[in-house]
Design goal:
Helix content: over 70%
Number of strands: 0
Distance between the termini: 26 Å
Largest sheet: none
Strand content: under 5%
């Protein structure tokens, strides 16, 4: 297992780039035609502002969740760790993601309440995913979104099921009767992990006393995702392609594409996001647009979005380089203590 993990740490970039190369070769002719058309550069600058602003909003969302746990945590630290997490999706050692790097660094700075520190990162990710499926569900109601194909109707159903389940789970989390239930309290007596679970339950109870912080974080997530998807749409307009789906259609299918890219274990979903967006472009195209042209348009729009995202993430490069020794030491420390970032988080190293 350890050998497989180390091998994948080296293979994940070749695999991701191989998928992108395969998509390029499959759509080479159409891509070359788009590449030679003049570009609308003003859309690039607007996309940078939207994508960058959306990233800062996600950092502010996490900042609110951390402060609700009564941590001394200035916003500049949220920016620093947020940008480190962002750039770590591309350059972090091993097979870890940006959220894990951020959680480990946060826990290292908060040694007395490490489980609570990690819980803020987990809840931040959960709220982000819930807001994402909510965006897709709401967009499916817009009249401009055509859902003629069975695959698209299935996506709409999954978005609404995910939204309903997520909201029910959030309400339960914020209900004191849930955390006071006898079977929940029995978890604290479990061997080895009981203390950790007890601290996590206490963290949830703190959020119950500050529900508006969680609600505000969810609303910020909705705005942030709307900005990010709008930034993607502007990247497509930047390329001046023969055809681009309208913004409301992007709001419908981009949440699914982002979720798929987030769960594929390659750097920043590289290759996975490109493939899913290209497929969606094919699914929503009008009859006047060929499947090949639509797939090429989706691929080049995603590659343009990659350029903008890397430009924003590069801001974190300075943070990452100055803290690289700290990051490597923290990851090594966490790996030595336990292979999972949550394990023994309640123990001072």
């Amino acid at each position: 297992m350890e050998l497989l993990k180390k091998s994948w740490a080296w293979l994940k970039w070749p695999v991701a780039l191989g998928v992108v190369a395969w998509l390029y070769l499959r759509n080479r002719e159409s891509l070359e035609q788009i590449a030679h058309t003049p570009k609308a550069w003003h859309y690039l600058f607007a996309a940078l502002l939207l994508v960058g602003g959306s990233a800062v909003l996600t950092f502010f969302r996490w900042f609110l969740l951390v402060r609700a746990q009564q941590f001394e945590f200035p916003f500049r630290d949220a920016l620093r760790l947020g940008f480190i997490g962002l750039i770590s999706n591309y350059v972090a050692p091993g097979a870890v993601g940006g959220d894990i790097v951020k959680a480990i660094l946060m826990a290292r700075d908060q040694k007395s309440r490490r489980a609570a520190a990690i819980a803020t990162v987990i809840l931040d990710r959960i709220l982000g995913m819930l807001a994402l499926v909510m965006v897709g569900a709401i967009a499916s109601l817009l009249p401009a979104v055509a859902l003629d194909q069975p695959e698209l109707r299935t996506v709409r159903l999954l978005m609404w099921v995910g939204t309903g389940a997520g909201l029910v789970g959030l309400v339960l989390m914020l209900t004191p009767a849930f955390t006071h239930a006898r079977w929940i309290r029995k978890l604290e007596s479990l061997p080895k992990i009981g203390k950790l679970l007890g601290e996590l339950i206490h963290s949830v109870e703190l959020y119950q006393s500050r529900p508006m912080a969680v609600v505000l974080a969810l609303l910020i997530s909705l705005v942030g995702h709307a900005g990010l998807i709008s930034g993607f749409f502007l990247c497509a307009l930047w390329m001046k392609q023969p055809w681009t789906p309208d913004l409301s259609t992007h709001f419908f299918f981009m949440p699914t594409a982002e979720l798929f890219g987030a769960f594929v274990p390659v750097p920043a979903g590289m290759g996975a996001l490109e493939g899913v967006v290209s497929q969606f472009y094919k699914d929503v195209r009008p009859e006047s647009i060929s499947a090949e042209s639509a797939a090429a348009a989706g691929l080049i729009a995603t590659l343009a979005f990659r350029v903008v995202s890397l430009g924003v993430a590069a801001i974190g490069g300075a943070y990452y380089l100055t803290a690289r020794r700290e990051i490597v030491d923290a990851l090594h420390e966490a790996e030595v203590q336990n292979p999972t970032p949550l394990a023994d988080a309640s123990e001072t190293p």
